Each structure stands twice: as C-alpha cells, then as structure tokens.
Amino acid sequence: MVNPLWLFALSLGAAFLLPLVDRLGRRIALALVHGVTAAWLAAGIFWLSILLSGGEAMDFGTAGFMAPLAIVLRVGLAEAAGVTAVALTGLLAASSLTRSLRDAPLGGSMALLMVLMGLSGIVLTRDLFNLFVFLEISAIGTYGFLGFDDRKPALRAAFKYMIAGGLASSLYLIGVIYVYRLADTLNLDIAASGTALSGPAGTAAVFFLLAALLVELKPFPANGWAVDAYETAHPGVSAILSGASATALLLALWKILPLLGPAHLSLVAASGLATFAAGNLVGARQDRPLRMLGYSSVAQVGLVAAVAALARLSGLGDGGSDFAAMVAGGLLLNHLLAKTGLFLLAGAVEDDRARGPLSPLALAAAGILSAALVGLPPFPGFWAKWRLVRALADSGRWWILALVLGGSLLEAFYVFRWLGARTKGEAGEAPVRLGIRGAGPVLAALLLVAAGTLGGIRGPVPDLLLWAPWAAAAVLFLLDGIPGRLKGILSAAAAAAFGAAVWGRLDGLGQFFAVMLLGGGALFSIAALRKGGARRGLYPLLSAATLALGAILAARTPLEFFFAWETMTAASWLLVLRGRDGRKPALSYIVFGLGGAFLLMAGLAAGGWDGGTAAAGWPGLLVLAGLLVKAGALGVHVWLPGSYAESDDESSGFLSAALSKAPVFALFALALSLGAALPGGPWTSRVLGWLGLATALGGALYAVYQEDIKRTLAYSSLGQIGYILLAFAAMDQAGWTTSLYLALNHFLYKSMLFLAVAGVIQRTGTRNMYEMGGLIKKMPVSFLSVLMAIIALSGVPPLSGFGGKWLLYSTLIGKGWYLEAAVAFFASGVAFLYLYRLIHSIFLGQPKPSQSEVREAPAALVLPQLLLMAVLMAVSVFPRLMLDPILALVGDRFPTTLAFEGSRLRSALGYWDGTLTMVVTGGVFALCLAWMLANLHNPQSVRQFNIVFAAERPLRPETTHYAWRFFEPYRKALGFLTRERAERFWDAFGTGAASVGGALRRLYTGNGQTYALHVVLYVAVLYLLLGVL
Amino acid sequence: MMRRVLVFLAVAGLAAALLPLALGTGVPEAPGALATAYLEDAPGDFGAANVVTAIVVSYRGFDTLGEVAVLFAATAGVGALLTRKRLGIGDAEPADKPAATEILVTATGLLTGLLVMFGVYIFLHGHLTPGGGFQGGVVIATALLLGLLARPESKLSHGILSAVESLSGAAYVGMGLAGAFLAWGFLDPRVLPLGRIGSLVSAGSIPVIYSLIGLKVGAELSGILDALKGDRE
Amino acid sequence: METGILVRVGYALVSLFVITNYGLLLIGSMARISAKVQGRVGQPVWQPYIDIVKSTAKRNSIGHGVMFYLGPVFRLAGGVGTYMFIPAVYGSVLFRNFSDSGDLLLVMYFIFFGQLGMALGASEGGHPYSAIGVSRGLAQMTAFEVPFALSVIAVAIQYRTLDITAIVAAQQGGFWNWTVATNPLAVAAALIAFLGMSMHNPFSIVIAPQEIPIGPPTEYQSNLLGMLQTNRAIFNGAKLVLYMNLYFGGATDVVTMVVKTFLIYFINVFVGQAFPRFRVDQSIRFFLGVPTLIGIASVIIAAI
Amino acid sequence: MSILEFVSRINPVAASGAVLVLVGVWGVLARPNLFKIAIATSVLETGVNLVILSTGYIRGRTAPILDSAADASTAAARMTDPVPQALVLTAIVIGLAVTALQLSYAVRLRAAGGGSSIESYGDEKW
Fold first, then answer.
1. Which domain range does residue C87 map to?
2. Rounded to whole angstroms, how far apart are CA atoms C93 and C112?
3. A521 in Cβ contact with A472 (< 8 Å)
4. Cβ of C106 and A797 within 8 Å?
5. Per-residue pLDDT tens for D92-121?
6. Is the peptide bond before A641 cis (omega within 30 degrees of 0)?
7. Average pLDDT over residues A709-733
8. Which of A56, A661, A893, B156 sits at a 20 to 30 Å CA gap from A815?
9. pTM for the full model?
10. Pick from A680, A706, A734: which residue ends a domain?
11. Has residue B167 been placed in a domain?
C-alpha cells in the first residue's frame, strides 16, 4: 500500500513551492494543485481496491516509531473511502473553481490545497492531537478559502465562521489535554482500550472532544455561522465544505466513537436528529437556493451522525458496525455527491442571473442530484434509508422513524420546489447552459447513478427486470434528439417487450393489471405520436413510468416493491412537471406521492407485507394508508386534480387511466397476502368503504363545478377510484369482482375520454369547456368516443358500465351496506351532471366562429379510440369476456354469490343479462330509428342560428352557448359540500409547518456573536444533558 | 438584557463544565508512562538534550509539519486578503503617515542585527536549550517589525521573503523524505550522525530542521506583518 | 325459455301497443281532469292521438344535425326499453316483456337512457334554453333519486331480492302484503320522488323554459315531436307500472293494472294542482331533506 | 476533605487557565468590536494553553532538558512531563495563525466600509 505520508509530503511540497511555480504562470500552478488532488484520488482508489479485495488495514508510523511514541496514520476501508471522497469532491469542484482561482491571488489555490490535505489528514490520523492539527489546517485553509475571491458577503460570513471555529478548537484542545492527562496517551486506539476515561473526569474530558467535533458538524441551533458561509461563499467552496469537509468531520466523529459512553452517544443521536428536523423545517422556509442547500446540508450531516451514534448505542440494525458503515456510509456518500453536485450546479445557475429554463443536460443532472438528495431510487441514499427505516422499525423506535421520514419529506418539498422552479425558468428567457461549469455536477450525477445502480444490483435488487424503467429512461434520454415519433414507437415497444418478459412470472392478478398498466403505457405512447417534434423528456419519462408500473407487478420482496413504487412515483412526478403549468401541481404531486410512499415504507419495513401477524396489525394499516394517499382518497386527494389537469394531455390520460390502478393492485396484493383480509379487523373494511364512498361522491361533486375539461376528468377519476375502493372494501366475492370490473372499465372509458379530450385540446387550443361548442360536426369520431365513454361511465345500459353499477349495488345491498348504497346512488346521479355538461359544452350547442377550421383529431388519437370503442362494444355485448377472468381471479376465497347461467349473471338478489339487454335495446333502438326515418318528410338542414329565439336573432354564439357555470343552481343548493376543506386543511398544515420553520429561523439573526452564543449555549446544554443522562 | 442573561448563562454553563475538570484533576505526582518513556528514550534515540525538542521535531514531527502548514495557510490567506487592490487603496501613498520617532529609528538600527543574530542562535540551539525554530523565527520577525515601525514607507522584498519561505518549506519536506529513505521513517532525524548529547552538532538533523523552520517562520511572520500594513500589491 | 323468440317479440309488440294506448288515454284524461279542477272545459280525451297524428303528418322537418335527429330516437327507445324490462302483469306471459334481461337495477338505470339521448339531441339544436332545461332536470334528478333509491333499497331488503317478479310475488295475498301496508314510509318516499320524476308541479321548473313558446318543443317539430309525444305516454306508463309492482302489489290482470296505475297517477296530478313551483335549488334541498329522512327511516325499518 | 486540603489540591495553573478561558469566552460573546473579538479569542487560546501546560506541571521538578542537573538515567524521576510542553508549542503557533487571519479579516471588513461592530455584518440571516 502507498504510504499516505508520501501524499502529505507531496501536498506540502507542492504548497510550499506554489509561489515559485506561480511565477511560471497561474495555469501551471493550478495544474499542480489539481494534479496533487488527483494523486490523492488515485491513492484513495488504490487503497480501496486493495482493501475491498481482502487487504488488511495498515498503520503507518512517523519518524521510525509507532504508537504510543509517535503519530500513527491508518489506512482502513473507512479512511480510504474518506480520502477518495475528499479528493473527488476537490476535483469535482475544480470545474467551477478554476476560473475564479485563476483571477484571485495565489492564496486561494494554496488554501484549496491546504483544505484538502487537512481533511485527508483528519481522515487518516489515529492521534488525537494530530487530529487537532489537521482540523486546524483545514479550518485555517477554509477561512482563507471562504474569502479568496473577495465576495463581500463571504467575507462577513468567514468572520462569523472563524469565531465559531475558534471556540470549537479551544474546546477540542481542552478535551485532548485531559484525555492525555487521564489516559496517558494521545493515541486513539490505546485510549479506547483502557478504562481510564470511564470515570466522571474522563467523561467530562471526552465530552469536550465530542462537543468540539459536534460543533464542527454544525448542529442545530449552533450552525448559523456555517449556513451563512454555505450561502455566501463561492459555490465551489460551499461544495467542498458541504461534501468533503462534512465527510471528514463525520469520519472524525466516527473515529472517536469508541471513546464515547452511552450518555455521549445519546447526546450525539439527539443532537443529530434535532438538527435533521430543524434543518429541514428551516430549509422549507428558504427561498434562496444556496442557503436552502446549506440547511439541507446541516440536516443531512445531523442524520448521518445520529445514525452512527444509534448504531453504536444499542446495536441498531443486524450487524452492528457493518450496519452503521452501510447506512451511515450510504447516506454520507449520497449526501456527499448530491450536495457537491447541487452546490456546483446551483452556484453556476444562480450566479448568472439567468432566469431561463435549464438546458436538457443540466436539467438531467439537476434532476438526478435532487432525486438522490431526497433518497429516491436507485441512488445510494435510497438503499441506506431503506435499511435505516427497517432497522428503526425492527427495534421499535417509532418516534425516530417518524422524524426521519417527516424530515425527508420536508426536504423533498423544498428541494423539488427549487428544482421545479429551475426546470421551468421564467417565460421568454433563453435556456441556461452550463458549459464547463456543468462538468462537476454532471460527473457527480453520473457517479451517483453508478454507485446507486451497482449498490442495488449487487445488493438487494439483483433482478435486472426491475431496472428496466431506468434503462429505458436512460436509453430514450440519450436518444432524445431523434424524432419524437420514433421514440414513441420505441416506448410502446418497450412496454410490449417488458410485458412479454414479465408475463410468465406474474400471477393472475398481476397479469390482469399488467394489461391495464403496461397496455395503458403503450396506448398513451402511441397517442403521443399525435405531435411531431422531439418532445424532449416526454418519452423517456412515459416509458420509465410504464415499465415501473410493470416492475411493481413483478416485484417479489417488499424492497423490490418499494423500489419500483418510488421509481413510478418519481417518473410520473416528472411527467407532471413537464406540463406547461406543471410546477405547482407537480410539487404537490411529489410531496403527497412521497408522503404516501413513506407511510408505505414504514409499513413495509415493519413487516406490513409479509402476511405475518405484524401485517394484520398497524404495519399493515400503514401500508394501507400509504396506498390510499397514492390512490387519492378524499382528504389526501388534493394533489390529484392539478396534476392530472396540468400534465401533458397524454400523460394525464396515462396517469388517470393506467397509473391510478397501481395502488388498486397493491391493495389487492396486500389483502391477498393476509389471506384475503384487511389489516386491522372488520372496522378497517367499514371505514375504507365509507372513505371510498366519500371519495366517489366528492370526486363527482367537484367535477360538476369545473370549467376546465381536464379538471373535470381528473375529479371524475377521483370519483371512480372511490367506487373501486368501496367495492374492494366489501371484502367478498361480489365486492372484489365489482372492484376489478370497475377498474378495467375505468381504464377503458377514461382512456377514451382522455384521448378524445387530448384531440379536442390540440385542435382548439383551450381547456375551458365554455370556449368550445358544436364540435360534433368537426370531430365526429371524438364525439362518438366521448358519447360511448360517458354512457359507460354513467352506467346507463346497455354498455358495460351498467355491469359495474349492477355489481356495485348488488354487492352493497347484499352486504347490508344500505346507506352506502344510497349514497353511491346519489354519487352516480351526480356523475350525470358533469358528463352531460362535458359532452354538451364541447360537442353540442353553438359552434364558435373561431373554431370553424377545426379538424378531426390526428390519427394517433383516433385509431386508439376506435380500438377502445370496439373493445368496449365487445365487452358490453359479451360481459363474460371480462367477467369470466375476473371471477376466476377472485376464485373461491369467499363464499360464492355470483355465478353465470349462460349469459345471465346471477347474484344473491337479482340477475343481469348483458347480452339480452343489448339485443333488446338494439332492437328497440332500430325500431325507433326506422320509425323516425320512415316518417321523416323532406328534412332540411338549417344554418347555425336558425333557431326559435323569442322571435329574435341571437347575438353571438359566445353568448348563446349555455356553458359557463352550468350548474350554478346546484352549487347554490349543495355547494356547501364542496368547500375544499381538504385543501384548506393541508394549507393550514403547511402554514403551520412553515411558521414553525419561520420561528426557528429567527435564531439565525446574522449576528456572528449570536451564533457564537448559540455555540456556547449548545455546549452548556449538552453538558447539562450529559449530567442528566 | 435578555442577551446579557444568555451570555451569563452560557459562560456559567461552560464554567460548570470546565472548572471540575481543571480543578478536580489536581497536580500530578509523577509523569505518566508515556512521558517517562520519552524522558528515558529520547536522549538515546535522537541524541537531543532537549526532550521537548525531540518530541516536537521527531516523535511528533508530523504535528510540527502540520503546524508549519497552518502558519503557511494563514500567511497565504492574509496575503490574499490584504492586497492594495482589495483594500481599495490606490497607488497614491497616503500623505499623512506620521514619521517614526528618532529614538525608534536609532534603536532599530542598533537592534536589528542583534535580534536576527539572537533568533538564529535560538533555533540553532533548539535541541539543547529551551527554544527552537518557531521561537527563533518569531524573534527574527520582530526585527523586521521594528524596521517596519521605524520606516513605514519601506517595502520588504516580497519576492525574497516568498522564496525563502518556499525553499525552506520544501527543504523541510525534503528532510522528512530523507528520513524516510535514509533512516527509519518520514521525518526521522537520524539521517545525520547523532553526535554527543549536549554539543551543538548533535541530534541528527534536528538542528537542520529547526533552522529551516526558523527561516520559514521568520519569513512567514514577516510576510504577515507586511501584509497587515496594508500596502501590498 | 319455453317460448320462441319470435313469439316473444310478438307478445312484446302487443304489450307495447296496449301500454301506448293506455298511456295516451291516461294523459288525455288527466288533462281533462285538470281542466275541470281549474274550471275549464278542457281538451277531448283523445287529444294526444290527434297531436301525434298531426305531428307525424307534417310535410317538412327542420334538422340541426345527426344527434338532433337521434335525440327522439333515443328518447323513444328509452321509454320503450324501460317498459320492455318491466314485467307489466304478474304471471302473464303476454305482459312479461323482456324482464329476464335484468332486475330492478336495470330498469332504474335504463330510465336514463332516453333522457340522456334526448338531452344530447336537444343540445345539438343549439338552443340555450334546451341546455338550461337539461341542467335543471339533471340537477333535480340527482336529488329525487336519493329518496327513490332509499325506498328501492328498503324494498330490496324487505323481500331479499331485486327481481321485480319476485317482489310482486311476495306481495300477493291481499292489501296487507303490499309494500304500502308493510312499509308505508318507503312508499311515501318513493311517491314524493315520483313527483320530481314526473316533473309536475311543484317540481316543474325543469320544463319551465318550454312554457315560454321557445325551447326544445318548438325546435322539435314534425314526426320528431310525434315520437316525443308517443314516448311520453309509454314512459309514463312504464314508470307507473314499475311503481305499482314495487309498492302496490302489482297486477295479476290488465284491469287491475289500469286501475292501480290510474290511481297512482292521480295522486301526482292532485299534488300538482295544489302546490306552486319550486326553484331548482329549493327542490334539491327539499328532496335531500324530509323525503330522504323518510327514505332512511324506511330502510331502517326494513333492515330491522 | 477540608477546604484547605481541597485548595491545596487545586492546580493553580489550570485554575488560572480556566479563568482566562472564561474571560475569553465572555469577550467573544459580549464585545461586539471585531478587533476585540479577535483579541478575546486570543485570550481564550492563552487560557487553553495554560490549561495544557498545567497538566504537565509537577511540583519541584526541573525542565525536561538534560544538563548537569539531570542526566538520562534520572530524567524520569526529576523532570516534568515534556508532552504538554511539546503540544502547547504547536497550539501556540496555531493560535497565532488564527489570530493573524482573524485580524486580517477584521481589517479587510473595515476597509470595505463596514463598521467595527459585528452587528453591522448581519445581512445574511434566516
């Protein structure tokens, strides 16, 4: 192994000679600096490779002696990783720093060299006093580095930083000297092996060491000085501080853990968790990106420290130190790369006052970095967080679990809020290109992808099929330059190929849903061909979301399931974000999506999926709650309408028709894992039933008042999912049959509606129904499609929708849920309102002169609609086409009440013969049609305004088309039911969290002395707590 | 008021943590095992009469190298911060700088040479008597400080200072490497013969290292003083 | 299925013929009765026949588009179909219709078929008052469906079936077995709902736009109007038969059917003469108030 | 333990060092002037250095330098602990470096036109 001392000699030699080298030119000097960093990186990687292939950790003495006489450096796995991380961050930051370093005095370059060497020294040394020296080298390097390019705010921040740093180093020195006095050594390993430090004096001495390191780790509330620095320094400096410096300091903390007693460890855990929570709360209030990243930084570091302490404190997790290394290490790696990349990226972007959207590559990097930071799959943070949550659940630390997940959710909120704003940019501004400054962020993003993917494939998710979404997204993203239509076909083909690959391993339920989920993805990929052009981003995301849905079906373990679930959430969120006004809806989509996912995660981790006794209890209920959030049950539905409305039209269709079935599938899978029962007992079923019913009614009522065609459909989807939940909750043969039947039907007619509406919007250029009218003559196929779809949706015979209604009422009355049945009846009635309004306002009534040139929708929309119409017709005439498979799926888990006699389906209460109904209706209709035609004498078509209008000519179509606020009397009568209580509740909730964050951030007054006061008070309080513990 | 209370509480809290430790550990009766080992082995190992120096330059020489690096980093930082450009000082010399007093100017002329000599003496005898490279370097820098006080308008040759600093630093690192290649480890002073304890030429390369450190520290502190004067380019 | 399909179609046509004539006469006689109540002479009982013949014989017809023409077709098919799915006379093969297509739920939902089609047809006419009328009608419909649904649920609970024939069968054996005797609350709720369903006063706001001489009936003329008028008779008849079956013991012969439906309809007209008209929001609140409570009570009674 | 006994056990160097530390901390927290903060930090460091030295002090012993008074064989019995002295040397120099840098920042901030009170440098907050 390379002796690390050579590297120190190299660094110092280079630093000392730098003033001389600089006379040859600054470029050469900078090349030397980066070269030295590269040498560190090479050494780190070399050590890692040796150690990972079974090499032993090695100690290196100085001056020909070993411990205790001399200082010893150690190269073990953690040290090698730390050195690699530090050097890597230094090189990543180089892309953004180089230009500034060239223009600034040489001190900046020297400071960079010193900081990186100091941090590596912190990582490598095993001597407590030597640790102090390296802490000071990196601190003084940092002080110099903060102000190197002379930005005024950074100078102010640096002074505050120095005050706090000075306090910390004094504390550390006091600790070191008393450790020496008591343990008679400065070597960590020797000190840890003895018992000299276990008395009260030893505890106090170690406390000082610990307090100093904790302060250096920027704990809440003693971290204002650090956040100010993060915000104001050159982004490259912030990146190194947040990435490399935090890594080294955490490793220092890790090193002294063996010296700590249980009381110390509790302090670390408590302080870390408080920092995590407070950092994220305050971060959520922050609108300046760099400062926001600063808060996120301190929060993440707090979490890592807490995990390390908890692991040691009580053997959290299975394997003790291995667990801690994996989880804390994984979180740290994730934080390191993501935060470094984000600081560099945000710095580059925010520096330029450029307000435009990001260029595609920058956007991809920003997306990857943000997603990684938040802990989405497949990045290292995801795997680490899963293990953490699992361990916390196993050991029953629910408060910590809730805190970790809540904090992560907050973090997701503000990071994605920033990302959303950056993605969209401001209208009319040129896209922001990063140029060379993009190298660092892009490289960090690539490393994250590589680390996460490797960690996943070689770890808990070796099944390559589950990685298909990511592969598809990557491939299509790389091909994003090629014509969009080609990508659409590729995307559809990918869905088909995935379906073929996965079909064999799915059970009946999986196959049933695969038809909807994968078929839906393919369908809407084809529909997307309606527009030419590259349509950047659409196809990769659509394909990823589709395949992720497939992966959900194919998942075998809870982790695999959750992996696919989060993949689906992430991809669909980006689809929403891609919409023109998708920024706000996408934010609430992802926040609720992740909120649901975290509930799911907690439940899964606690064994809510294993079908064991835990699953029947509240872990199962947690899973259920998570799924309900994703399904958009009333109360947590607020994310749904905006997302469906503002995403691209084909994406909306995909979300509503296909993706909304994913939670339904998961509900069934959950119930099946418990032997066709719900967790929590019979009350769950009753409550779920009412919840579904409320969703059905609420969705329908809200849909009635919308002017926006897509919002109408969105609320309609909400309502339909409500029926599916209601029927599912009945937990008997009829109920499940109904639920599955409704799901498939909903897929069919909601696809038709969204396809038709996409065509209408494309042709008219508006989503407001009252701005349309009379389109039946221009778009007859779309009209027919909508007509059939609304007949099916409303449940009017003879189309297949009636089957759903019949099954539903049979179920409810048979089950004894009478009031539920009555409310369901009411809700179904309300559906007529918005459906009639939909078709009337768009296709009937007065055509607008401005829309006289409108044509039928493109073939890419019409053909799928024709196909769906044919399918709908077929299953209406022959209901058994759908019901036989469904009945077989439900099987004999429950007492049988439904059975076919020929074409007649019999329930406990009644019967329904779909085929005969269709024949009779068809016959009667034909008869009436014949009668009408036979008696139609001399029919004349008249022009548009030829109507009897109180003997006057109507003024304009715009004023004659009755469409705006169509159901105003209804609002007058029943408007009190739809006052957006859930929205107000969540708004109030958000305001509450924001005001907590707002109150907390008042601590950060900007006064360096106050920050110092926080530091000292923090230490004092910690000491008091130590006494209590 | 609130603030004062909090400051009081903070200081009181710190006192509560610190005083038991400072008062309670008392005065040791005898050095511990490590100290004893140093006291007994250092003369034999390195031939240095001053055990502290043996520790500072060899056993814990890595600390000292780091310490040099700290000073170096601070110098670099100060130098980068306080340039004329950044301080917003134009080329024009401020006219109203008071001239130094006659006493100071005369005394400086007398003392400068003595101070430099004394500094050199201190770091050359670092292995024998109290003192060493840092102390010597500081004394040398004092001479320069006197010069600056006596003639505020004088300019130190920044290039020479920087070259001395660089070369002595690099040479120090070179001595460390020499220890690794010629003796038993990085910074091992046993590159040169150890000599007789107590004589000037003894203790291996310790005097050489201390001289380099003295030069470097002298140059660095002079540089800092010069920079704080605020008229560096 | 002992009877052949052609025979069944033949029977159905006969049944349809009967109900059409009965419905027309019912409308005529009710108009006459109303006139008497108001102190007028009124129209002849056969006036509906005259209207239909007149309309159908018109030489010209104005059209606004395909859906406009299809509206009356949907409407009439809806009325006929609804009737076809109800067994009109208990035990009669002739009046069994096609009630084996589905149970009570099918009938309740098929009622919407004609209304929906008609609404669409009227909409294509482009007349704003058509849309206003439809919006009012739909809004009111959602409300009166609630007591009606509750009452139907009560019936279903009581007889443990949704099969209309079985419901009628369970009420055989005298007045005290009729629903009106066993669960009067259910009947009360259903009858109030019926007022709304028939759009008579006080719930006639739906057709108010037609009273000013504009709106759908004026847009629709010639044989299209004739079809609507025909449907009115059939549809009315179908609903009355349904009510009779559910609440009044059904009928074992045509005469009983005529008497019973006449009386049910009479209640309707009687109320219509006695009350003024509600606004839409008032009627919605009304239906979701007391009648719904009655309906819930009836369900509770039936469930206990 | 009587008070006298307790007082006699007190390490006077450590005690004075601790007091200096507290004074330094008070100065850092309570004096808003930038230069005074730097000086207070210096006082704090001096206090810490005293504390460090105090741990190596043994009553009645000589400095750890071999001379006529003590040769290698009797060193362990007659000399004080050399380690804290070696450490304090490093600590002093590092403290010096920090002070120099802190003062430079103070000079730099003043030169940029800000006040000499730290309260005037609070633009970054919340």
1. 5-303
2. 27
3. no
4. yes
5. 999 999 999 999 999 888 888 778 888 888
6. no
7. 95
8. A661
9. 0.93
10. A680
11. yes
Instruction: Examine chains A and C and say if they touch (3+ CB pairs below 8 A).
Output: yes
Does A159 score more than 70 pLDDT?
yes
Six-digit token pair at A678?
Answer: 């719900």
Q: Is B130 on the interface with D (CB under 8 A)?
A: yes
Are A216 and A141 contained in the same domain? yes
Please give the tally of structural domains in chain C.
1
Check residue A296 and give its pLDDT. Answer: 94
Q: What is the pLDDT of residues A286-308, one digit of tens each?
A: 888 899 999 999 999 999 999 99
Per-residue pLDDT of A181-235, as tens digits, reads 888 899 998 888 888 888 888 888 999 999 999 999 999 889 999 999 999 999 9
Cα(C263)–Cα(C265) distance, integer angstroms: 5
Residue found by looking up tokens 């038809």 in the block: A515
Minimal Cα–Cα distance from A436 to chain B, Å? 26
In a domain, A314, yes or no: no
How far is Cα A637 from Cα A867, in angstroms, rounded to an integer? 31
Q: Is the pLDDT of residue C218 over 70?
A: no
Spell out which residues of chain A touch residue D125, defining contact as CB-CB under 8 Å.
224, 228, 1004-1006
Residue B44 lies in a domain: no
d(Cα A616, Cα A613) in Å, to the nearest integer? 5
Q: Given C65, C138, C212, which is nearest A836 (Cβ)? A: C138
The Cα diameter of chain C in Å comes to 61
- Mutation pick from C105, C245, C283 vs chain A, by most beta carbons of A within 10 Å, is C105
Question: Cβ B76–A104 below 8 Å, yes or no?
Answer: no
* Three-state SS at C71: helix
Q: Quick one: which of A641, A644, A739 has its CA closest to A688? A: A739
* A residues 148-187 closer than 8 Å to D (CB): 152-153, 155-160, 162-163, 165-167, 169-170, 173-174, 176-178, 180-181, 186
Q: Is residue A374 part of a domain?
A: no
Task: Tell the residue number behind the tokens 């003496």, with chain if given.
Answer: B121
Helix then strand count (H, E) for chain D reads 5, 0
pLDDT at C216 over 60: no
| Mean pLDDT of all residues belonging to chain A | 91
**What is the tens place of the pLDDT at every residue in A5-32?**
999 999 999 999 999 999 899 999 999 9
Which amino acid, one-letter code, is at C204?
Answer: S
Q: Do chains C and D touch (3 or more CB pairs under 8 A)?
A: no
The residue range of the domain holding B143 is: 49-92+99-229
Evaluate whether A348 touches A235 at the Cβ level (below 8 Å): yes
Pairwise CB contact (< 8 Å): A1007 & D124:
no
The tens digit of pLDDT for each residue in B21-43 reads 877 777 777 888 888 888 888 87
In Å, how far are A190, A478, D21, D48, D93 from D87, measured between CA atoms?
18, 58, 18, 12, 10
Based on the domain organization, do A637 and A489 belong to the same domain? yes
- Residue C214's pLDDT is 42
Angstroms from A528 CA to nearest CA on chain B:
58
> pLDDT exceeding 70 applies to what percent of chain C?
95
Confidence of residue B86 (pLDDT cuts 50, 70, 90): confident
- Residue A821: name the closest of C156, C193, D48, B134 by CA: C156
> Domain residues for A1021?
4-260+1009-1028
Query: Closest residue of A to D86, CA-based?
Result: A129
List the single residue in D17, D22, D64 with the smallest CB-CB distance to B39. Answer: D64
CB proximity under 8 Å: D 63-82 to A: none
Same domain? For A618 and A755 the reply is no
Q: Are A813 and C69 a contacting pair at CB < 8 A?
A: no
Nearest C-alpha in A relative to C59 = A937
- Do the Cβ atoms of B7 and D29 come within 8 Å? yes
How buried is residue A888: exposed, middle or buried, by Cβ count under 10 Å (0-12/13-18/19+)? exposed
User: Could you give the domains of chain D?
Assistant: 3-58+75-116 (1.10.287)
| Segment A712-731 mean pLDDT | 95
